[in-house]
Amino acid sequence: MKPFVVLVIVVIMQGVSGSCPEACLDIFDPVCGCSPSGVKTFPNSCYLELANCQGEDYSILHTKCCNENDKKICDCKNRVCLAVIDFVCAYSCTKGCRTFSNTCQLGIENDCCGGDYVYRYKGECVSEGCRDDETCGKCSRACDRSYLPVCGCSSNFGFRTFNNECLLNRENQCNNTDYSITAYEPCIRDTDDASEVVNGCGDCPPICLAIYDPVCGESATLNTQTIFSNQCFLGGENRCRNGDYTECS
């Protein structure tokens, strides 16, 4: 009997699902991507998808270039606490007593959600023992000098830029104001006259469809023109940062 050889041909196909783009158009419609390794600005969402196909793990934070604040936001998105029950009690001068599952959860609340909780003791909160009215009465909350500007909006006082989120929270705590963050970047204009606040602070950040239908906007305050991805994003700049953009003439 003659020997014979069986030839096995294995064909390896990559990207058969068609989910990975082969090429991207050179359209500048920037997106800020977030991954465990940090933040990165991509020329458009196609380039972000292409990076993910090459082994990265980016998700879109927003449809603009990344800024300094995005590093903190991305870090918060990627931070994970172990599911360990080790109760701690903390107190906030603005929100009162609260029990956290563990110190990691307490840290996320303060670092990522604008909390101002101070650790009081280990275990679940007991209302009689967790309050710290003496400290709160002195309005002694300290904030560092880091410049991570946020735009705050108050229904009574309008728009105001704060150097960081802690200073906004301190303003609310010490002066009984109601500022909320509408953008993690400076306001385009601070409100000089409270009577200008007509429609409140709006829904921020704006939720806009990722449709590229470019609109040119010009601001008299900034004396500049900016290309927005679509009309919705132009409106969002005006609503959430007190902008004065109108379509270019």
Automatic annotation (TrEMBL):
<dbReference type="InterPro" id="IPR036058">
    <property type="entry name" value="Kazal_dom_sf"/>
</dbReference>
<feature type="domain" description="Kazal-like">
    <location>
        <begin position="14"/>
        <end position="68"/>
    </location>
</feature>
<feature type="domain" description="Kazal-like">
    <location>
        <begin position="138"/>
        <end position="189"/>
    </location>
</feature>
<feature type="signal peptide">
    <location>
        <begin position="1"/>
        <end position="18"/>
    </location>
</feature>
<feature type="domain" description="Kazal-like">
    <location>
        <begin position="203"/>
        <end position="249"/>
    </location>
</feature>
<dbReference type="InterPro" id="IPR002350">
    <property type="entry name" value="Kazal_dom"/>
</dbReference>
<keyword id="KW-0732">Signal</keyword>
<protein>
    <recommendedName>
        <fullName>Kazal-like domain-containing protein</fullName>
    </recommendedName>
</protein>
